[in-house]
Amino acid sequence: MQATMQAAPAPKGRLWAGRILSGLAVLFMLADAVMHILQPQPVVDAFNRLGYPIQLAVPLGIIVMVCVTLYALPRTSFLGALFLTGYLGGAVSSHVRIGDVPFNIAFPIIMATLIWVGLFLRDRRLPALLSAAR
């Protein structure tokens, strides 16, 4: 017997709120990925300050683009949210490591929250999954 969780449509207001929040998260994360790939001076300075070689900027940008794509697609949105949360957790860790707190850790935490709240509102499977875990 295979247990499947059907995604019932969310109420329209909740669905649109989730889409808007998720869309904002996607836009911010895509901007981050593009900035990594283009490597303007602020990105180079940030990599130097954090102690990372600039050669990692393009691979990180590509990784973020893949994660954002997974998040944007309904079938893989949960996986994308997990991967993006891991990426943002690494950003928090990098800033804490050099004592660059509290402002520079606030943005990744806010982004991760935005990602999960947006997913929670637009996908009925997540609330169902959380209530089944109780």
Description:
The protein is mainly alpha-helical and 134 residues long. The protein has one domain. 77% of the residues lie in helices and 0% in strands. The longest helix has 27 residues, at 12-38. The mean pLDDT is 90.
How is the topology of this model organized?
Blueprint: H1 12-38, H2 41-50, H3 57-72, H4 77-97, H5 103-122, H6 125-133
Helix pairs in contact: 1-3, 1-5, 3-4, 4-5
Task: Kindly provide the radius of gyration, computed on alpha-carbon positions and rounded to a whole number of angstroms.
Answer: 17 Å
**How is the main sheet built?**
none
Summed up, the domain count is 1
Residue-averaged pLDDT: 90
Fraction of residues in H or I helices: over 70%
- What's the total helix number? 6
Residue stretches low in confidence (pLDDT < 50, at least 5 long) are: none
Secondary-structure element string: HHHHHH
Task: Please supply descriptive tags for the structure shown above.
mainly alpha; elongated; 6 helices
Short structural description:
The chain is mainly α and 134 residues long. The protein has one domain. The protein contains six helices and no strands.
